[in-house]
Amino acid sequence: MERNSKIFHCLTAQQFSREFLHEICDLADRIRDIARTKAGMEYLSSILNHKRAMLYFVQPSTRTFLSFYSACQILGIRCAEVRDPKTSSEVKGESEEDTVRTFSSYFDFIIMRHPKANFAEKIAQLLNKTERPVPVINAGSGKDQHPTQALLDIYTLRRSFSHRGGIDGKSVAFVGDLLRGRTIRSLAYLLAKFEDVKQYFVAPPEFQIGEDILKYLDSAGVNYEVLTNFKKIIPHVDAIYMTRLQDEWDAVDGTKARFDLEHYSLTEQDLPSLKPDAVILHPLPRRQEIAVEVDADPRAMYWRQVRNGMWVRVALVAMIFSREKNIVEYYLNNNL
Ligand code: NCD
User: Options 3.20.20.70, 3.40.50.1970, 3.40.1390.10, 3.40.50.1370; which CATH number does 13-146+308-333 get?
Assistant: First the structure.
């Protein structure tokens, strides 16, 4: 088994060290360079063509599902999927745990998105006790974590700030439904690993970031501020991370509160006040919180995030199966 790999299960953002983050970003850059030629793509698709992946996505997904699917294709991995639990034996009363254990009997790793918080962690622990403890990748769990989105966000920030000393010393504003947005929670953990990064949490009080994250930031000595006024902070930050209202959770968590979305939206009129070298991020899908006119601004990075997500996921899967040395070797041997 690949137990000696630098990463086996990918479950929470906290599990990544800063060193790991650099390594995965470097590897994603090399993979991109290799992928520019037909020979390179053929090489990449030979690396893991003996492996098969299960994509278990029982929550809606466009980008995360397709980017993992594409990442697997690039590495030659064959995929199967369950996206609707109504088509699996769960309707016959099988527990989710037994369902996932079944996947582990057929596939070499499992990529999963699930509405329950900590579900991927629970499954990883369960599989660890079985004879086939295959790697589990958390592709979004409940309202708590989305570690691979945070990896692609870090990768995008690193590329954006590559000529400005990297991520260290920058300031980032998270805006929107911070209470239920799992991407900002995972990214807040990762940004805490960099030096001197200031984090602003900008939301109405009912939708502010969880106390658990603030406690973590306190213990890590991170400088942060909790704010309500978005427009005031725009001129002062290096990155703005917009998020949508996560109202699909209303029925589950009983939230009735609403806020004036206009106060937490970025429009063309806001662009002149944004620093000339700042960046605008969004995990997508977006609604009105970023006006479509903003897309044409060179500081808008959210469509790049989508593509970066695929490359960082190729790198992640390659690392889970300890193939990073092969990739670097190919890169060097071909003078890329
Ligand atoms: C996010 C998610 O599912 O948490 N989407 C994504 O994976 N890019 C964000 C969201 O749904 O708002």
Answer: 3.40.50.1370
Cα–ligand 1 centroid distance for 28 (angstroms) = 21
pTM higher than 0.90, yes or no?
A: yes
Helix (H, G, I), strand (E, B) or coil at 38: helix
Quote the CA–CA distance of 222 and 21 in Å, as a whole number.
18
Position 188 scores a pLDDT of 98
pLDDT beyond 80 at 84: yes
Spatial neighbors of 190 by CB under 8 A, at least 6 apart, are 13, 16, 21, 150, 151, 153, 154
- Closest-lying ligand 1 atom to the alpha carbon of residue 246: 12
Residue 41 CA to ligand 1 centre (angstroms): 29
Binding-site residues, ligand 1, Cβ < 6 A:
63-64, 140, 146, 149, 182-183, 244, 283-285
* Closest CA relative to residue 229, chosen from 257, 282, 270, 185: 270
Q: What is the CATH number of domain 147-306?
A: 3.40.50.1370
Which among 155, 284, 288, 304 is the best mutation to test ligand 1's pocket, defined by most ligand atoms within 8 Å of the CB? 284
Task: Give the relative orientation of helices 302-320 and 63-74 as an angle to the nearest 10 degrees.
Answer: 50
Q: Report the phi/psi class of residue 165: left, alpha or beta, with left for phi > 0 and alpha for psi in -120 to 50.
A: left
Classify residue 210 by its DSSP letter: P
Tell me if 148 sits within 8 A of 13, measured CB to CB: no
Residue-range domain boundaries for the chain: 13-146+308-333, 147-306
| Alpha helical stretches, state H, the chain | 18-34, 38-47, 63-74, 96-106, 119-128, 147-160, 182-191, 211-219, 230-233, 250-253, 302-320, 324-333
**Average pLDDT of the residues of the chain:** 95
Kindly indicate the confidence band of residue 91, based on its pLDDT and cuts at 50, 70 and 90.
confident
Could you give the residue numbers annotated as active site? 63-64, 92, 113, 146
331 CA distance to ligand 1 middle (Å): 33
